[in-house]
Amino acid sequence: MPPSALGSLRSLTRRLTVGGATGVGWPRHEIALGVAFLVAAALIGLLTSGYLLQFATDIFTFMAMAYGWNLISGMTGYVSFGQIAFYGLGAYGTALLILHGHVPWYVAAPVAGAVAALLALVLGGVMLRLRGIFFALGMFGLVQILSILFSQWQFAGGGQGLILPGALTAHAVYAETVLVAIFAFALNLYYSRSALGLKAMAIRDDEEAAAAMGVHTTRVKIVTFVLSAIPPAIVAGLVAWNRSYIDPPSMFDPSVDFQAILFSLLGGMGTLWGPALGTVILELVGEQIWAQFPEFQLGLFGLLVVLIVVFFPGGVVSVLRRFGWLPRPVIMAPSELPRGSPPALAGEAGGDGPVLEVRGLSVRFGGVTALRDVDLEVRRGETVSIIGANGAGKTTLFNVITGFVRPTRGEVLFKGRPIKGWSVTQLAEAGIGRTFQIPRPMESLTVWENVLLAALNGRRKHAAVDQAAWVIRALGMEAIWLEPVVNLPPGHRRQVELARALALQPDVILLDEVMAGMNREEQEKIRDAIRTLHEYGVSAVAGVEHVVAAIVDLCDRIVVLDFGQKIADGEPQQVLRDPAVIGAYLGEAG
């Protein structure tokens, strides 16, 4: 082999096993596991037949279904009890195309998958507005509707079902099923290492906070929902051929869905290898239970499920990760933190006029008035602090400005434009960044991924990586940039929130008690950052804070709220000497 070719091969191997410029590497044990699956699949197809071949076909069928479920439920957190709906559609779609349209099976199955994806696209805008148990029950209801529909539709065989000619050999069905399982794995692989997957996982952790970072949550959920419908639909077409008979009870059987969910839970919900490991392990164990104790099969299988939930809540993958195996790759993380470069300064044009303006703002929650006729201006180059006792309406004011709460009366103008009706995501994209009173970082992600999530707002990947790296260095977070947020103390979590908001490169940034719960050293780091926010491209800063001593020398003006009303607005020393402020906020007679 020529030296240049040998060098290229070594370079490729190093990138696959360690990670190159993108940091998306394949550990050697992960490559070994993938090779083992492929070799086992090939040997089974070549050396087995009859019952063993059918058993292996069932394993890869469930693997494809588990990976489909893992996309929508594991990645976005929207737990579905209705993926079997797409499975049934795929089976019937394939059968009808072959029987009535005389379409070749290798065309019919993918077309049926496309039909299922189309249905998911249509339903996604409605179903994904539901959350939690309501989404799960909505999907379960969809399965029942489709089952009744097909049982009454005589063109599809009605309650009698459809008989298909046995045109495919068992080996051909097995080979195609393996390919569908590989396709489903590839979709999950893409999500585990892409910007789209990062956004989906952010939705899983905190959908509202993700929207505040510029994530189009509905769009991401619908795309994921559509992709999750394809593997079960295609593999069901092969199942139909394999069985040569389908009917509504078998094709829309909720217990089949339950098994796919169980396989993902055992292996590790939301992980890349979880569905594959869970399917293989439970299918093999279940087969042994059936062979040895057929009369106790259901009871023993149920006991196994209970043991899994109690002793392996994170699945097999979580156990393996304790030994350093199958780690989740940090999405788009470079092998080393780049230097980054500061963004172009925002808001240079427009003079000293208000970048943010609130006029006559009132908010009522039932019989409670949270804000009453509040006026506020934040001009370019200003840092404004908003203080007041607990319940004064400070956080409500920020929630109205950022689209989380609709005002009862009044308006908010951003750079001179009314923003009534704008969504949280639109406001983030327009240039309003914020932190939250109670920190809301994405806990299953790392510091890098939290900051990158915001940096991806309207930027190409290379620019987003550069922006995220610059922000992390600017805030002195180099030592923790690859740390999972769940392991961080409260002070560092607030620092992550500030970094995330700054990565948006906003025109105005709203800091909601960003120094609360910090020790003096941590407060000084945040104070240093606030002093230089204008140098980072931020046109204006508005902050809610209880630590008055920490903001007096930082802000140009202080605004005081008391029971939803503005009672003072001016220079810090002037406001803090105001008798009304002393009486309402500091608790002394004025």
Give an overview of the whole structure.
The protein has 590 residues and is an alpha/beta fold. The protein folds into two domains: 33-254, no CATH class; 354-586, P-loop containing nucleotide triphosphate hydrolases (Rossmann fold), CATH 3.40.50.300. Helices cover 55% and strands 11% of the residues. It is built from 23 helices and twelve strands. The protein has a six-stranded mixed β-sheet, with helices on both faces. A four-stranded antiparallel β-sheet has the order 4-3-6-7, covered by helices on one side. The longest helix has 27 residues, at 50-76. It is elongated. It starts with a helix and ends with a helix. Residues 1-24 and 346-350 have low confidence and may be disordered.
Summarize the model shown.
The chain has 590 residues and is α/β, with parallel strands linked by helices. Helix content is 55%, strand content 11%. It has two domains: 222 residues, no CATH class; 233 residues, 3-Layer(aba) Sandwich (Rossmann fold), CATH 3.40.50.
